[in-house]
Amino acid sequence: MIRVDGRGKSDSLIQVRGLDKTYRRGGEEIHVLQGLNLDVDKGDFVAFMGPSGSGKTTLLNLLGGLDVPTRGSITVSGDEITNMSGSKLTSWRARHVGFIFQMYNLIPVLTAFQNVELPLLLTKLSSSERRKHVETALTVVGLAERMNHYPRQLSGGQEQRVAIARAIVADPTFLLCDEPTGDLDRKSADEIMQLIHRLVKEYGKTVLMVTHDPVVAKRADLTLHLEKGVLVESGEPQGVSAGGVA
Amino acid sequence: MKFRRLILANLFRKKIRLLLTIGSFAVALFLFAFLSVVRDAFGRGADVAGADRMFIINRTSIINPIPLSYRDKILRIPGVKVITHDNWFGGVYQDENNRFPQFVIDPENQRQVFPELIVPDDQWNAFLKDRQGAVVGARTAERFHWKIGDRIPIKSTIWGKGNWEFNIDAIYHGKRPQDDETQFWFQWDYFQESVLDRQKGNVGWYVLRLNSPDDAVRVAKSIDDEFSNSPYETKTETESAFAAGWVKQFGNIRLLILSIGLIVFLTLLLVTGNTMAISVRERTGELAVFKAIGFSDRAVLFFVLSESLVIALVGGLIGLGLAVLAIPVLAKGMTGLLPTLFLKPSVLVSGLIIAILVGLASGLLPGIGAMRLRIVTALRRV
């Protein structure tokens, strides 16, 4: 169940409590997030929306351990990541987070196969085991036949599929998607959203996604809006209850 | 190594830049090897000098002679084992460009004083019996295609005009690769018969061997004291000091070569450092992605250092490989102009070590920059 009132179960997969993030620009303090709460369970698919500068990407960065909050805590599978050292956080990211970026961020000098293999280079898997995992991930995204293509030889939609394969290949605890369709045409965007939806429904993945696009957001179980630094439920949630969505 | 493919893929990202950077390493390392060889060649005398050998020259200058009559007096000084003498002949073969060192030698003691220059016994015996006989170093024989039995003219530029005729009776080889194989020796008696009366009975310098190198200082003092206040005062010094003094006449070659080498490597450091910095800056977003998906700061530093190291090693090996191939050819072409050019294995090892150090140093700053990259900031730049 996704909740934003800070009263979620203690065994939620992701538990955010009283999250503050303040930036200093010039002499001025900008409070991007203020006492934000969030509970997400395994297999949930949540979309974050909000105007530019509302802190969506900041929230995603904090949840992914790419940035540290000014105050508050984030706990994932019982591990409080806000207290981790830089190197611990790095290995935590490798095990628990799959990132999908708006601009795909593939390495242009590596083939689709090699790009997807990257997270596995950090594991103790043998070369043949890595190959098996990469082939499976590319099959899931429907690009097994293009594994030897370089990013420049793929369309935008295909590049994003490779990026999704890279995000899921190490079987992370959850996926963070930052505007995954922001650089795609409608048709490709639909295909990508179908794929992400399938990852949630068929493979039980937990997905947290930032988007500007209401059509894309509709694919999620729940859309949360960032307003004045806190999350507010909205949209057409499927079974909103007081403070939560079943 | 599972990161090999990743490192290679990054290296080949900009092929022309890679080629130019490797090229600059190769040129620098070739230059390093060549300059080292030239420096060694100038310092060769000091390097190959026998620890128990001393040179005695006229205190005024080496071009001033010393009487032959000094020989027996020197031999009587305790600690002196054997003594020989030489004169500089300074002739040319056929034309002015064909210069090489020719010495009038004392055949009786030459081989005892210079045991590292090997002459086969049968050839040496033939030389002893031949008044116009000559012993020639293997490199000079090869240079002019001389063989035993050839009769060759050497035109004197000091000891009267005209050609002196010699028979090649023997060819000597050095025991070590760095030994000088360019000399030409001929008989003292032949020389004495042919020079003017006023020039007779004088030697250019003496070379002696000691019973023990520990006696060098005492023996040198005794010899110089013996002939002080005479018309031919002497200056006695160890062979290495003599050779070093000889090189000094050309200027401070060592300092000159070291300075050039240092400038070359500093330039190389700047060029490679700049290349690596540009390469890292171009990949800021990619490096941020690496870090985001779980590559540690140390792994990122490792990638950057590996790339610069591979460039340095490949460039270095190409440059040193070229030196191995080209220096013998250059040495042949420069026979007579420079002392023997010989590429020592230690130069190759030092070159490789320098290449590795420059490679690491040039990758270090960009690598630390990449290591400290803030993921969130870098991703915003993509």
Question: Could you characterize what this model shows?
Answer:
The complex is a heterodimer of chains A (246) and B (382). Chain A has 246 residues and is an alpha/beta fold. Chain A is built from seven helices and 13 strands. In chain A, a hairpin with a 2-residue loop joins strand 12 and strand 13 (244-245). In chain B, a hairpin with a 6-residue loop joins strand 8 (151-156) and strand 9 (163-174). Chain B has helices spanning 4-11, 15-48, 70-75, 110-113, 121-129, 138-143, 188-194, 216-226, 239-248, 253-282, 284-292, 297-333, 345-371, 375-380; strands at residues 53-58, 66-67, 80-88, 91-92, 102-105, 117-118, 133-137, 151-156, 163-174, 184-187, 202-203, 205-210, 234-238. The two termini of chain B are 29 Å apart. Chain B is α+β, with helices and mostly antiparallel strands. In chain B, the strands form two sheets. In chain B, strands 1, 3, 4, 5, 6, 7, 8, 9, 10, 12 and 13 form an eleven-stranded mixed β-sheet that branches. Chain B folds into two domains: 4-43 and 252-380, no CATH class; 53-249, no CATH class. Chain B contains 14 helices and 13 strands. Chain B is elongated, with a radius of gyration of 29 Å. Classes of the chains: A alpha/beta (246), B alpha+beta (382). Chain A binds chain B through residues 61, 64, 66-67, 86-87, 90-91, 93-95, 99, 101, 103, 105, 107-110, 114, 118-119, 121-122, 127, 166, and chain B through 2-3, 5-6, 9-10, 12-13, 285-286, 289-297, 375-376, 379, 382.
How many helices of chain A? The count is 7
The largest sheet of chain B is: 11 strands, mixed
User: Class by helix and strand content of chain A?
Assistant: alpha/beta
Output the radius of gyration of chain A: 18 Å
Structural class of chain B: alpha+beta
Helix content, binned percent of chain A:
25-40%
How many β-strand runs of chain A? 13
Specify the overall morphology of chain B.
elongated
User: SSE order of chain B in H/E notation?
Assistant: HHEEHEEEHEHEHEEEHEEHEHHHHHH
What is the number of domains of chain B?
2
What is the average of the pLDDT values of chain B? 89
For this structure, the quaternary state is heterodimer
The DSSP helix count of chain B reads: 14
Beta percentage of chain B is 15-25%
State mean pLDDT of chain A (0 to 100 scale). 90
> What Rg of chain B do the Cα atoms give?
29 Å
> Percent helix among the residues of chain B?
40-55%
Query: How large a portion of the residues of chain A is in β-strands, by DSSP E?
Result: 25-35%
